[in-house]
Amino acid sequence: MCAMYWQLNDVWAAPTWSTLDFDLRWKIGHHFVQRSFAPLILSMFLDSNGRFRLWAVSDLLVPVQNANVRLSLFYLRGGLSPIFTGEVSVAIILPLSSQEISLPNWPSFASATDFSYDEGIYLLIADLIGSNGDFLSPQAVLWPDRLSRAGLYGNATISGLRDGPNGTYSVDITADDVLPLLWLDLSDAFKKANPEVLFFFEENAFPATSPRHSATLRLATNPKRVQICKNDVILTVL
């Protein structure tokens, strides 16, 4: 694991497996790696028999008790309301463990997932929620094996940019449908004019499953105190 982390964070001036580019900016893969290294995650997949499997993986030294897993199944190009929602109670997640979560026999869920998942028309979201209502892990997403070309799913726009604490910015996003992936970046013109500004978005490379989302833009280095404006932020939608 340490070797993997080194490889992903090493910087090469050539095509590479690194998830950081030569200017230390995060590539899309770095956000996935960051989420996968969280101390508590959900992992889900379809096995070789097409059966849905769900696991909780914990690196914590203490147990997690009385949690709930909330599942939401979306039909791409079918609006922002899920076609199925359900919750599973998890009495305990043991420390330093990987344990499968037993799912109830939901007829509506079984019928909705009785498909070849490579058709590219469904998106499944899983959230791990504590007894106090807090989210305990990064949101888990099961994407289709294949996705249609960009532009077929819906639209999203940057609706606002607000100053935040400690030199951060809050980027407001509005979506009109479920979108498999949103990618935020600063424009090429801004990066060319301000090569000394090192930045990253704390929330990036995520699906849109609600009409409004917010992401935090953090400037790691900004020696000239350059101000970011709304037109400097670009949004790519898949």
TrEMBL record:
It comes from the Eukaryota. InterPro entries: Beta-mannosidase_GH2, GH. Transmembrane segments: none annotated. One of its GO terms (biological process) is glycoprotein catabolic process. GO terms for molecular function: beta-mannosidase activity. Keywords: Glycosidase, Hydrolase. This is Beta-mannosidase.
